[in-house]
Design goal:
By secondary structure, this protein is of the alpha+beta class. 33% of the residues lie in helices and 20% in strands. It starts with a helix and ends with a strand.
Length: 140
């Protein structure tokens, strides 16, 4: 059971990273820094383009696996937040709820996307597919 849980967690983390559910976020800079020759003083509001940074192959090589994630800087990706304690209070609840739901469905059904379907994202406050996504379920 533990191995299934570990792999399911990796699938959920990878899905959240690749799907770019929220394409941007903002926070105040914690320390003085420099980016591309521009000085960013402490307490400056900064908008993070998650859709760009989460696709950086330097930190997120594809395919992503447990070994790749171990070599990443510790704050390069955090589900439901930025780093450390700055996370959504519902982080653990959402993860557990998603795990239970996925496990319940996958235990009873084989899931397949309809052949030839192309999923195109529409970016906004919450990213979603442009058109409906169709799947087929086959009882196990």
């Amino acid at each position: 059971m533990f191995v299934v849980h570990r792999y399911l967690r990796q699938v959920i983390d990878e899905s959240l990273m690749c799907a770019v559910i929220a394409p941007w976020t903002a926070r105040y800079q914690d320390f003085d820094s420099e980016l591309g020759g521009h000085k960013i003083p402490k307490n400056t509001p900064v908008i993070h383009a998650l859709g760009v940074s989460l696709q950086n192959e330097k930190y997120f090589p594809l395919p992503n696996n447990a070994e790749n994630s171990k070599s990443r800087p510790s704050y390069s990706f955090q589900r439901f937040g930025f780093a450390g304690k700055r996370k959504c209070p519902a982080d653990i609840f959402a993860y557990v709820e998603g795990t239970i739901t996925l496990f319940s469905i996958l235990r009873k059904f084989k899931i397949k996307m309809v052949e030839g379907q192309v999923v195109t994202p529409t970016f906004g406050f919450v990213t979603h597919p442009t058109e409906e996504v169709w799947i087929t379920l086959q009882k196990r």
